[in-house]
């Protein structure tokens, strides 16, 4: 329960009844959510929906979104690269990053974020 500390500090938690990409982005926008916790498949689904043209980031007010925590399983470096290419999120914390010798840039970037 990584998010429990936020509740102790007086933050609000918003839980979704479903995980459709549209619901996630709409909720982040409407509830003015600053920290989003996603599983790898949910983050992938959002990116895929954007790629297919089903979602447009400009349709949502995501200006307050400053941190995305992805985890509970290995996070492929390609997923981090894709999010960085479309996102204005300041920090992204993958809990488990697949380290690839061919992709040192992502591995180094992920380690720098852990250190901050």
TrEMBL record:
<keyword id="KW-0436">Ligase</keyword>
<dbReference type="InterPro" id="IPR042099">
    <property type="entry name" value="ANL_N_sf"/>
</dbReference>
<protein>
    <submittedName>
        <fullName>Long-chain-fatty-acid-CoA ligase</fullName>
    </submittedName>
</protein>
<dbReference type="GO" id="GO:0016874">
    <property type="term" value="F:ligase activity"/>
</dbReference>
<dbReference type="InterPro" id="IPR000873">
    <property type="entry name" value="AMP-dep_synth/lig_dom"/>
</dbReference>
<feature type="domain" description="AMP-dependent synthetase/ligase">
    <location>
        <begin position="2"/>
        <end position="87"/>
    </location>
</feature>
<dbReference type="Pfam" id="PF00501">
    <property type="entry name" value="AMP-binding"/>
</dbReference>
